[in-house]
Amino acid sequence: MSAAAAARRILTRLHEVMASRLHAQGKLDQVVDIIADSLDSEVCSIYLLREGMLELFATHGLNAEAVHVTRMAIGEGLVGTIAENVETLNLAEAKAHPDFQYRPETGEEKFHSFAGVPIVYRERAVGVLCVQHVDPRRYEDIEIEALQTTAMVLSELISNNELIDEEEARGLTPADTGPATISGLPLVKGLASGVAVYHQPRITIDQVMADDIEAERQRVYRAFDRMRDQIDSLADRAEFGVGGEHEEVLETYKMFAYDEGWSRRINEAIDAGLTAEAAIERVQQRTRMRMREIDDPLLQDRMHDLEDLANRLLRIVSGQIGTAASQGLRGDAILIARNLGPAELLEYDRRRLKGVILEEGSLTAHVVIVARAMGVPVLGRVRGLRGMVQEGDLVLLDADNGNAVARPAQQVVEAFQTRFAKSRERQALYAELRDVEPFTRCGTRIEVMINAGLRDDISALPLVGADGIGLFRTEFQFLVSATLPQRERQFRLYRDVLDAAGDRPVIFRTVDIGGDKALPYLRESEFENDENPAMGWRALRLALEREGLLKVQARALLEAAAGRALYVMFPMVSEPWEFDAARAVFDSQLAHLRRKKKLLPEAIRYGAMLEVPALAEVLDQLLPRIAFLSVGTNDLTQFLFAADRANPKLAERYDWLSPAILRFLRRISLATAGSGVDLGVCGEMGGRRLEALALLGLGFRRLSITPVAVGPIKELVRQVDLRELEKAMQAWLSAPPPDMRAAITAWASERGIETD
């Protein structure tokens, strides 16, 4: 008899039991009789987790008096070992195993052979199904597989009948169900509360036994076809280039995706009477058990690859291939994820997404920039996050202080609500500054503008009273699009942005894609092979090589700005000739529109971003060519320190207030003084009060920041006497103190200037 036939025989009889009107204990009693009879075994027993102990719930062959009496801890005896390791044991002589423990009340002294499999629920063993025989023998593979399949059905039976505690089933101890404090790196400051929602929700298998085996088989066939198409597409993408370890990884994936043995085992599980989801999970459990037996790291990696594919297949067959965004948020939510891309974040309902907690993340990652623009607090670099927060937990996020509380006590909730209310009051005070011009105490007008990238961002302009948009990231439209945005789509976006901005200026940065902002429809080997993508074939470098892309954008911008002023800024300029080349593309499109008798912008002002340190050495050549210069402190910092901003190990290593950065920025300020070129900062540095204070002391008079920071920065500006601040900054840079941040903070505190 095959393993599938043996399992099917058992499942057929179990189905009758599960459909009966017996109470749960009666069903278990019949189950052990059925398994013992089907496998011709003298003993069959079921142990279930109760109050942290494995309790004998039902038995055929052992003393009936031992039921609900015999109990073992996780890790104790053979049954406890199976549960602890979530592994199968198959022993010809049970007493020879080092973990064997004899329980006299069971009357099991006459039995020699022993086989047991874990009953798994939500990836944790919540019980053990075992068989015993008088004769010393190892159970055959088909018998073990029949037991494993039966254990899956038992998992459904015991969970549906509430025979196990839900918290124990989730692997939660009393400490896990109580309040938990989570610490991390504040990426976007703010307070938020909501229920925990995982970006990639756990797939729950609701039905184990199949109603129609052939229909389940066809579901799996279709899922395999779709999964293989995905893997083939992944392997064929030019982004991976030629040669290297990635090719081996993809070839391994393809090997597993087309492995007939894997698909055959899933089909055998379906033949036994399981649904497609249960069959995949059944084989996946077997894979996990095998992984625990492998000592070779290389082979373990390969088994992990297979499990990754099984997860992909399970998502496809269950129809749960999307993220929590596609399913929709039902209320105020704190999103939990390992990491996120900017496009993924933008898929969520802004009204209900209150905060984000990441296992990874860094201060200048693109998703953080988008979150800051959305006004969504983000906490990153949280180790062991999945083990601390469960789906549906209430979470209080305090990204101001770098922590969060899951499952908070009521008094903590009340204290948080009080603090949140005070924060709202402070925001209301900032709102009162909406129509107040930001003059310093000494009478200097500071321009406070916002960074934007989406059509909806423009609504923040009148709400916060910003002077304009100092950085409109045009690449956001490219990042959230499945295909390259055509000229008409770009034109409509730029026109809508200018219309919404009214008489306020909008500085459009030409598209900054490639390298660290890879697009699936523009990936090519010449820039995808970069070991350091942020320093590779991206931004203006890519745009100049792909002249058609820049031409389309230039035409769209020029047409959208017809009859009004157009501000264009080129990113990642390293040398003046790059600016000249980009300007020439716009000039050619301008000439084309003029020949077509099209309405033109009334004025065009060109500028550059200073992100590459080399540009600072040739500012004397560049300044006569430009109307404005914006320092991009995010990229500039990573280039100055040779520190990848996406590397989590370097997320906190380099300070924006280090003497190296401040001296560099001072050089730029001095170089532009008297040139007539408008100098500003459009990086995240300008939106932090203490850092903004330093920038004002260095001579910067235009700050382009996230909308939520406009009020706090306006308030800061009105408290500052620039003459006094500049004098202090000059002294600090001449002889840097041991801690520049502490020195500036102390100076501000002495003058009653809040820097938090």
Automatic annotation (TrEMBL):
Its Enzyme Commission number(s) read: 2.7.3.9
The Swiss-Prot or TrEMBL record lists the needed cofactor(s) as: Mg(2+)
Q: Which compartments is it annotated to reside in?
A: Cytoplasm
Which stretches make up the GAF domain?
Answer: 23-168
Does the entry feature the keyword Cell membrane, yes or no? no
A Pfam family hit = PEP-utilisers_N
The protein's superkingdom reads Bacteria
Record field: catalytic activity: L-histidyl-[protein] + phosphoenolpyruvate = N(pros)-phospho-L-histidyl-[protein] + pyruvate
Gene name tied to this protein: ptsP
Record-stated family = Belongs to the PEP-utilizing enzyme family.
Tell me which UniProt keywords the record has, alphabetically.
Answer: Cytoplasm, Kinase, Magnesium, Metal-binding, Phosphotransferase system, Sugar transport, Transferase, Transport
GO MF term set: phosphoenolpyruvate-protein phosphotransferase activity
Question: Protein name, please?
Answer: phosphoenolpyruvate--protein phosphotransferase
